[in-house]
Design a protein that fits this description.
By secondary structure, the chain is mostly helical. The chain is built from 16 helices and two strands. The chain has a two-stranded antiparallel ribbon with strand order 1-2. InterPro entries: Na/H_antiporter_dom_sf, NhaA.
């Protein structure tokens, strides 16, 4: 079977996210067992252990869980930023026609759950959790689609991924506007100025990995100290990474042929080292390769495995350890509200808005996707695990009871959504051959 050169990168992405979902489930299970075992004190003590730097003039001394949620998750958001930029420039969101289908789905999946949350909520103290059911966990949802194999078309996976990316963008904006602390304008101004410098250099075609990392760390720290959630620095930094290549494929191939011929003609050392001529050609090859690669694509490719296989499962391990003990008080109305918003808010919001837009001829839905599949994927969108837990931590940072209640609601709602979505797609009549 000949691999489609256009679809194969996306198919690889789906496989990575699918396996990441399995790791995420494993990490969540371990966290729940650990937090509810006789070793629960060690679980809490580990994530509250403080590390960092502290001097008379500067302090960056935080519990391990905050290094994960503020630091490692900034890398996660950086990757999201790269994906969003790529999709808007050359991907599934780069034209109005391509954007319309997932955009309507994303809008329905964000607006309806929020309205439902506000309508159901009766406690003013829990109202600030309205952003929790907004986003979809790509890793978990794609893992379920992968498990269904040929019962779902690739276009359905593309739809899910595209509207989940739009969801993430919406969640990022919500975090920036509603879940950041008291802002120190002077520090924020310096951070923005540094970002503008990077944007200007990118516009002029200059890119340095060393400069980006150095300024990225500085910008992250300034965001943290300014009262803006530092993960936002990750997504804003991603927009400064250029997508264009410095040389095109024909020029690279011509130079690759020359370098190959020069290596063949160079003196070959009998020792397990390269000759001076070979070293020179290898250096040239590395230089031409750097010019040929898109910096954005290169970073996205290198980071994806780290985020999928390490950062997200590690985040789940640190954050999913809710104590499931009847003696621990919970805010049950909050739990129920989140479950309803994830299960019904997402499914009704996405499917109703998409089907209404289809009836009004505002969007074109691929011919291999039927209405029942749209409904099934709409339920899978209720798996809001990673971003939902992240927003819950921001919304209820000063109330452990509300945080635990929100996490339990997220776990239950995500599980119900996953089961219903899987069953709908598993037993729908259309089968993709």
């Amino acid at each position: 079977m000949i691999e489609n050169p256009i679809l194969s990168p996306f198919q690889k992405f789906v496989k990575i996210e699918g396996f990441s979902g399995i790791l995420l489930l494993l990490a969540t299970t371990i966290a729940l067992i650990w937090a509810n075992s006789s070793f629960s004190e060690s679980y809490n003590a580990l994530w509250q252990y403080k590390i960092g730097v502290s001097t008379e003039s500067f302090e960056l001394y935080k519990p391990l869980i905050l290094w994960i949620n503020d630091g490692l998750m900034a890398v996660f958001f950086f990757l999201i930023g790269l994906e969003i930029k790529r999709e808007f420039l050359i991907g599934e969101l780069n034209t109005t026609k391509k954007l319309a289908f997932p955009l309507f789905g994303a809008l329905g999946g964000m607006i309806i759950p929020v309205i439902l949350f506000v309508f159901i909520n009766q406690n003013p103290d829990t109202l600030k959790g309205w952003g929790i059911p907004m986003a979809t966990d790509i890793a978990f949802s794609l893992a379920i689609l992968n498990a269904l194999g040929k019962r779902v078309p690739l276009s359905l996976k593309i739809f899910l991924t595209a509207f989940a990316i739009v969801d993430d963008l919406g969640a990022v904006l919500v975090i920036a506007l509603f879940y950041s602390g008291t802002i120190k304008v002077s520090l924020l101004g310096i951070a923005i100025a540094l970002l503008i410098v990077l944007y200007f250099l990118s516009f002029k075609g200059f890119y340095s990995k060393f400069l980006t990392i150095t300024l990225g760390v500085v910008i992250w720290t300034l965001f943290l100290k300014a009262g803006i959630h530092p993960t936002l620095a990750g997504i804003l930094l991603a927009f400064s990474i250029p997508i264009r290549q410095k040389i095109k494929t024909p020029e690279f191939i011509d130079n690759l042929v020359k370098i190959t011929n020069n290596i063949k003609q160079a003196a070959i050392s009998k020792k397990p080292i390269l000759s001076k001529e070979q070293i020179h050609e290898i250096d040239d090859l590395e230089d031409w390769t750097n010019k040929y690669q898109s910096p954005l694509q290169h970073l996205e490719h290198n980071l994806h495995d780290w985020v999928a296989y390490f950062i997200i499962p590690f985040f789940a391990l640190a954050n999913a350890g809710v104590i499931l003990n009847s003696d621990v008080p919970l805010e049950m109305p909050l739990v129920i509200n989140i479950v309803i918003c994830l299960v019904l808010g997402k499914s009704v919001g996405i499917s109703a808005v998409v089907l209404l837009a289809k009836k009004l001829k505002l969007i074109d839905i691929p011919s291999d996707i039927n209405n029942l599949q749209i409904l099934g994927v709409s339920f899978l969108a209720g798996i809001g695990f990673t971003m939902a837990i992240f927003i819950a931590g921001l919304a209820f940072s000063s109330s452990p009871i509300y945080i635990d209640s929100a996490k339990i609601g997220i776990l239950i709602g995500s599980l119900i959504s996953a089961v219903i979505g899987y069953l709908i797609l598993r037993f729908q009549k259309q089968k993709i051959t």
